[in-house]
Design goal:
The complex is a heterodimer. By secondary structure, chain A is of the alpha/beta class. Chain A is 42% helix and 19% strand. In chain A, helix 6 links the parallel strand 6 and strand 7. Classes of the chains: A alpha/beta, B alpha+beta. At the A-B interface, loops of A face loops of B.
C-alpha cells in the first residue's frame, strides 16, 4: 500500500495515524481543544475494529489505559492541560509498572481551568515528572500536523521498546490547525503481544505480575535503580533535535512545538535584516538534547528562548549552555501566541544592531 | 452591486479569525457567545456583504456558506 496525502486537522491526523499504527484501545474524556481525537475515534471504531470508550473522567481513563497496557494492548489516551493534571497519579503508576502506552497532551493556556487557546505551560509537568516519585516520560514535541501523525508511530515504537509511557506534547493551535499530511499505510507498525502481558496464567510459564507496590524499601530501591538505568539508556540513545542555520549563527533561537514554527519566521526576518540567526528545536523534551546546546554555545554569542509560557524550557537551555553564553527569554502566556515581529525586535535588542 | 449574505456553521467554527481578516467589507466579527466547544465563532456584523466569497475560501474548516442575491431592478 502506498502513502496517502490528506488535508486534516492536527487532532484528526493524530487519531488517523494512531489507527494506522495499530491502536487497539483508546480511553478518553472530551476537552477542548482535543475533543476531535475522541470524536474521530468514535466515528471510525465501528468500521475499523478497535475499542473506544469515553470514561467518566480523566482519572478513570488513565487507569483504564493502565489496565489495558498491563494486558499488553497497544493503548493510548489524550487530553488537554487540566485533564492531564488529573491523570498524573495514573501516569506515575504506569511508569512504575513499566508499561508502554501513549498519552497526548494538547496543551492549552493555564493555570487552573485556564483558556482553550494554545499554550506551552505544561513543559515542567511533562518533562520533570508531574506525578510522584522518580520517574520520567519520554516526551515528543511535534511542530507540524505532519509530525502529529509521525510521532504517533515513533511514540508507540519507543514506548514498546523501553516499556515506558510516551507523551506527545502538542498544543491547541497544532491540534486545530489544518495542514497537508502524508499518512503511512495501515499495519506498517507490527504488533506482537509482549510476553510479560497479564493475560492469564498458562501451564507453560509462571504467572506474569504487574505491580507498583513494593512495601519493602530494599526491593523498592532495586526497582528505582532499574528504572534509572533505563532512563540513562534512553538519554544516551533517543535524543532527537533539529537545528536550522546554526552553523554561522550569532544568535540561536531555542523553541519547541508551535513556538519553533513562529521562531522560523522571526529567524527569516532577522536574516533579511542582516542578523545571523539560527534555530535549535528539541524534538524529544525528555531526554533533552543538552549536548548539542553545549556545542552550539561555543560558536553562537547569544541564546534566545521562545516559549508560550513564563519561561520553563529556559532552565534546560541554561543547563545545556552551562554559563558559556547569555540566555535570554521572550514569550507570551495564558493562551496568547508570540508575534514573529516582536521576537525579531527582541533579537535586534539583544544583538544590538540592525 | 450584488447583495450577499453568509451562513456560518457556529459549531464547526473554531474562531481562528481568518475570515475576519479576509473580508474586504469588514462585515464579520467574533461572537460574544461561545459554541459547544467553547470557541467564540465568526458572525455577520454588518449587512453589507457583497458575496465575494473571500471568507469561504480562506475558512480552513469550510464552515461558511455564501449566498448571493441579485438586486431587484426598480
Amino acid at each position: 500500500m502506498t502513502k496517502e496525502i490528506r488535508l486534516m486537522k492536527g487532532n484528526e491526523a493524530l487519531a488517523e495515524a494512531s489507527i494506522r499504527a495499530g491502536l487497539q484501545a483508546y480511553f478518553g474524556y472530551p476537552i477542548t481543544p482535543q475533543s476531535e481525537v475522541l470524536e474521530y475515534f468514535a466515528e471510525q471504531a465501528p468500521k475499523r475494529g478497535f475499542t473506544v470508550l469515553q470514561a467518566e473522567s480523566e482519572v478513570a481513563s488513565i487507569n483504564m489505559v493502565f489496565g489495558a497496557a498491563g494486558a499488553g494492548a497497544r493503548v493510548m489516551t489524550s487530553s488537554s492541560s487540566p485533564g492531564i493534571s488529573l491523570m498524573q497519579e495514573g501516569l506515575s503508576y504506569i511508569a512504575a509498572g513499566e508499561l508502554p502506552c501513549l498519552i497526548v497532551n494538547v496543551n492549552r493556556g493555564g493555570p487552573g481551568l485556564g483558556t482553550i487557546q494554545p499554550g506551552q505551560g505544561d513543559y515542567f509537568q511533562s518533562t520533570k515528572g508531574g506525578g510522584h516519585g522518580d520517574y520520567h516520560l519520554i516526551v515528543l514535541a511535534p511542530s507540524s500536523v505532519q509530525e502529529m501523525a509521525d510521532f504517533v508511530f515513533e511514540g508507540f515504537k519507543l514506548a514498546e521498546k523501553y516499556r515506558n509511557p510516551v507523551m506527545i506534547l502538542t498544543d491547541g493551535a497544532l491540534g486545530q490547525m489544518m495542514e497537508k499530511v502524508e499518512l503511512p499505510p495501515e499495519g506498517s507498525l507490527p504488533y506482537v503481544r509482549p510476553e510479560w502481558a497479564t493475560t492469564g496464567k498458562a501451564a507453560t510459564r509462571e504467572r506474569n505480575i504487574v505491580t507498583t507496590l513494593f512495601i519493602e524499601p530494599e526491593v523498592m530501591e532495586q526497582v528505582n535503580i532499574k528504572l534509572q538505568k533505563k532512563y540513562t539508556e534512553i538519554c544516551e540513545k533517543e535524543v532527537r533535535y533539529e537545528t536550522i542555520n546554526c552553523e554561522d549563527a550569532e544568535i540561536v533561537l531555542c523553541a519547541y512545538g508551535l513556538s519553533a514554527r513562529i521562531s522560523q519566521k522571526a529567524m527569516d526576518l532577522a536574516r533579511e535584516g542582516g542578523i545571523k540567526a539560527g534555530i535549535f528545536r528539541p524534538i524529544t523534551l525528555y531526554p533533552y538534547p543538552y549536548e548539542i546546546l553545549n556545542k552550539l554555545a561555543e560558536t553562537a554569542d547569544h541564546f534566545l528562548d521562545v516559549e508560550m509560557n513564563a519561561g520553563q524550557m529556559i532552565e534546560d537551555v541554561r543547563l545545556g549552555v552551562n554559563g558559556k553564553k547569555p540566555v535570554h527569554f521572550t514569550g507570551r502566556m495564558g493562551g496568547m501566541i508570540p508575534d514573529p515581529e516582536v521576537i525579531y525586535q527582541e533579537i535586534v535588542k539583544i544583538v544590538g544592531k540592525k | 452591486m450584488i447583495k450577499g449574505t453568509v451562513k456560518i456553521a457556529s459549531e464547526i467554527c473554531k474562531g481562528c479569525e481568518l475570515c475576519i481578516v479576509a473580508c474586504p467589507q469588514d462585515s464579520l466579527q467574533l461572537s460574544r457567545e461561545i459554541n459547544l466547544r467553547g470557541y467564540r465563532y465568526a458572525e455577520l456584523k454588518d449587512d453589507n456583504c457583497t458575496g465575494c466569497i473571500n471568507c469561504a475560501l480562506v475558512c480552513p474548516d469550510s464552515a461558511i456558506t455564501v449566498y448571493r442575491m441579485p438586486k431587484k431592478s426598480k
